[in-house]
Amino acid sequence: MGIITCIEDLRRLAQRRVPRMFYDYADSGSWTESTYRANQLDLQAIRLRQRVAVDLSRRSTASEMIGQPVSMPVALAPTGLTGMQHADGEILAARAAAAHGVPFTLSTMSICSIEDVAAATRQPFWFQLYMMRDRDFMADLIRRAKAAGCSALMLTLDLQVLGQRHKDLKNGLSTPPRPTLANLLHLATRPGWCLGMLSTPRRTFGNIVGHAQNVSDLRSLSVWTAEQFDLTLNWRDIEWVQQQWGGKLILKGILDAEDARRAVDSGAEALVVSNHGGRQLDGAPSSIAALPGIVQAVGDRIEVWMDGGIRSGQDVLKALALGARGTLIGRSFLYGLGAMGEAGVAQCLEIIRKELDTTMALCGVTQIEQIDRNVLWGDASGSSTSSAFS
Ligand code: GLV
């Protein structure tokens, strides 16, 4: 591959370098993948308003997310099995994020453990948690996140049951991969990945194996979620989490205005408008389509962030224009990681930052706080923007 200029280049490279079952795990949506596709398509459909003759000499993409200074309002989303896209993937991504001045969120379902990432980085990171039946294990995870100096807890609300992803079933997703003939033949086509994996001890769920009761060999994400995730999750449980944690709380997976109001009442610092990257409720609206209604419902009583479909700085700008104060990227950074490890995540962040900076300039804005609906074509000038975004 020649010079890398955009996230799509990183995606193509990752597809060549990461074993199929892990590339597919990251790159799929549930069932027909209609929501997964809508996340990107609806962002692409938004048009920007070109402005000229504005003084662009002093520009900055710097901002804050929950009071934390960020070089741009983009955080790395919690993604499961990140350490299977590349050996020690969570450590590498956390380092790239810290170097770039953006937050990294470690998933409960990570390969590198909370302690692994804390030992390998100096910048505090955020920790993502699922509501699980085993409250002792949850309390222990929260305690471990505190001990590791994590600066926010992100509770995922939209995955009590797992949306079916056909490819994971067809590929026999497991970590580490089962040594079947077909898997071994395929892995032989991914020598760089294999070498990396042979040089690290981290090949299964680091936060869970050896910590949760009765879990020693955790191969299947779907078995774990079916057995462990708490179907009774309700808003009172969020109070319990908050009591255990006592720090900044972010609620992820809100797609409805009514739920967003409940999130405000919970006292959380931020909510993430999210359909889990189209991996849960297939048929749900795209995140960007759901965003304006949620912003309208909660105003500035809570920070509203958005994830789903962001593959460029232009996408970040569009989310901010429709009222998000921050964004999360998942697949975009995973592609970078799978393509080139830490350097690939760094490149992903640099691509998005540059795109955001240049696109802000072309829209005639120089600071993140200036971005609002005025940068959208059709909104400010009176002609029509797609009704999905009004
Ligand atoms: C886990 O969060 C997943 O979407 O697979």
Automatic annotation (TrEMBL):
Pfam family, one: FMN_dh
Gene Ontology terms: cellular component: plasma membrane
Family: Belongs to the FMN-dependent alpha-hydroxy acid dehydrogenase family.
Keywords: Flavoprotein, FMN, Oxidoreductase
Domain FMN hydroxy acid dehydrogenase: 1-381
Active site positions, chain numbering: H276 (proton acceptor)
PROSITE patterns: FMN_HYDROXY_ACID_DH_1, FMN_HYDROXY_ACID_DH_2
Gene Ontology biological process terms in this record: aerobic respiration
CDD domains for the chain: alpha_hydroxyacid_oxid_FMN
PANTHER family in the record: 2-HYDROXYACID OXIDASE 1, S -2-HYDROXY-ACID OXIDASE-RELATED
Name recorded for this polypeptide: L-lactate dehydrogenase (Cytochrome)
Binding site for FMN: 78-80, 107, 128, 130, 156, 252, 274, 307-311, 330-331
A Gene Ontology molecular function term of the record: FMN binding
InterPro entries the record matches: Aldolase_TIM, Alpha-hydoxy_acid_DH_FMN, FMN-dep_DH, FMN_HAD, FMN_hydac_DH_AS
Chain positions recorded as glyoxylate binding sites: Y25, R165, H276, R279
Organism in which the protein naturally occurs: Paludibacterium purpuratum
Cofactor requirement: FMN
